[in-house]
Write a structure and sequence with these properties.
Shape: globular
Number of strands: 0
Largest sheet: none
Order of helices and strands: HHHHHHHHHHHHHHHH
CATH architecture of the largest domain: Up-down Bundle
CATH superfamily of the largest domain: MFS general substrate transporter like domains
Oligomer: single chain
Helix content: over 70%
Radius of gyration: 21 Å
Length: about 425
């Protein structure tokens, strides 16, 4: 105990001695620095694999439908494993759970690389390995998200979550570009090899960490633990309201990214290059949004900013349905990326700050399942509306529905606006 107190004092002295700008203050924490830099490398590799995998599937089959199947298989494990993983995160050492998931993803990438480099790969190999990757990801997310607060403490949680968003958006920009270069010059096999190698820094970071989470939840059957998480979320107005804001937005507004190729071709008369430019503007706006959240002070009105970002996201996408010029569309896409990250980073933070430690894993698993499920189902409904009516109508109806719910919450649940 004495050595632990001495270590804590030394870390506190180091933080005072090495001041960091407010935007990067979570990096004062040694274990979070290890995690952040490891994740920066690993996430870039993940985007490399996603792009190379899609190209490989299309090369093997020539089927757009098979592309959809492979990507769908990757999210199938989310519901059964994700909820169970949330209960595991509340019972066991989160660092070890994340380490297990990352090691599994490393093995998956390595196997895919070997199969591709030796020309033995078949599409069923890719489907099976995509399912394994999805299972590992479902195990990883609740533990990883609820682990951040143990790395930085509640005072720097907003900053840490926003810095995580910066990593994601930098990786989303750099990863596909690197993947395209690798696939064209050396083939998919070496792209998968690069991804496997990028897991090593994050695995090393996890092994070097000193932080270990303590099991707090009494042992009980998994279904009871999961049910306890749902009961808490249902009885806590703040939790279910925030989750509903994110869920409704994902279902009604997020499909704009899925329908963007339709707008590119039919509205702006462009091709793949125009689509790529618009996606770049979304990523740039998202990166600015993440850095903005990271720069917020500890007393910033997070609840008010979440409310405004949720309303603004719907309004921005609603306005996109009336645009007919590329540069105005590009500006709106940048604004959409900014609002999306503001909304989701702040929602993530407020939920984690307002749930007990022993339930955080399960609540975060519910949060991400609602978000991912709503986004997938939203893409499905928007696709059908676009098919039988048109893309503008699909986005207009969806954004209007989200705006209605955002306005209702802002009016009826005023408590959210006053939470810091």
């Amino acid at each position: 105990m004495a050595s632990e107190n001495t270590n804590n004092r030394l870390q506190e002295q180091l933080r005072r001695r090495v001041p960091l700008p407010r935007t990067f203050r979570a990096l004062r924490h040694r274990d979070y620095r290890l995690w952040w830099f490891g994740q920066m490398v690993s996430l870039s590799g993940t985007w490399v694999q996603l792009v190379a995998q899609n190209w490989l599937v299309y090369r093997l089959t020539g089927s757009a439908a098979m592309l959809g199947i492979v990507n769908f298989v990757a999210v199938v494990p989310a519901l059964p494993i994700g909820l169970w993983a949330g209960s595991l995160a509340d019972r066991f050492d989160k660092r070890r759970l994340v380490l297990l998931a990352q090691a599994t993803m490393f093995v998956q990438a390595a196997v895919l690389a070997v199969l591709t480099l030796t020309d033995l790969v078949q599409v069923w190999h890719v489907i099976l390995l995509a399912f394994i990757m999805g299972s590992a990801h479902a195990l990883d997310v609740p533990a990883r998200q609820s682990f951040v607060v143990e790395l930085v403490g509640k005072e720097d949680l907003t900053n840490a979550i926003a810095l995580n968003s910066t990593i994601f958006n930098v990786a989303r920009t750099a990863g596909p570009a690197v993947a395209g270069l690798l696939v064209v010059t050396v083939g998919e096999g070496l792209a998968f090899t690069v991804n496997a190698a990028t897991f090593l820094p994050v695995i090393g970071a996890l092994l070097l960490m000193r932080t270990s989470s303590v099991r707090r939840e009494p042992k009980s059957p998994p279904h009871r633990q999961i049910a306890r998480g749902f009961r808490y979320a249902g009885r806590n107005p703040l939790v279910w309201v925030i989750i509903s804001l994110v869920g409704v937005s994902a279902f009604f507004v997020m499909p704009y990214a899925i329908l963007l190729p339709v707008f590119t071709k039919e509205v702006f008369g462009g091709d793949a290059d125009v689509y790529g430019y618009l996606m770049t503007f979304i990523g740039g706006g998202a990166l600015v949004g993440a850095l903005t959240v990271a720069s917020l002070g500890r007393r910033s009105p997070r609840g008010l900013l979440l409310t405004l970002a949720n309303v603004a996201f719907a309004l921005v996408v609603l306005s996109f349905t009336f645009v007919r010029t590329f540069w105005l569309a590009a500006a709106i896409m940048a604004a959409s990326g900014f609002c999306f990250v503001m909304q989701n980073s702040l929602a993530n933070t407020l939920i984690q700050l307002n749930v007990p430690d022993w339930l955080r894993g399960r609540i975060m698993s519910i949060y991400f399942l609602v978000f991912m499920g709503a986004m997938r189902l939203g893409a499905l409904q928007a696709g059908y509306v676009a098919r039988y009516v048109d893309a503008q109508a699909a986005l207009f109806i969806g954004a209007s529905g989200s705006l209605l719910w955002a306005g209702l919450v802002a009016w009826r649940f005023r408590k959210l606006r006053h939470i810091k």
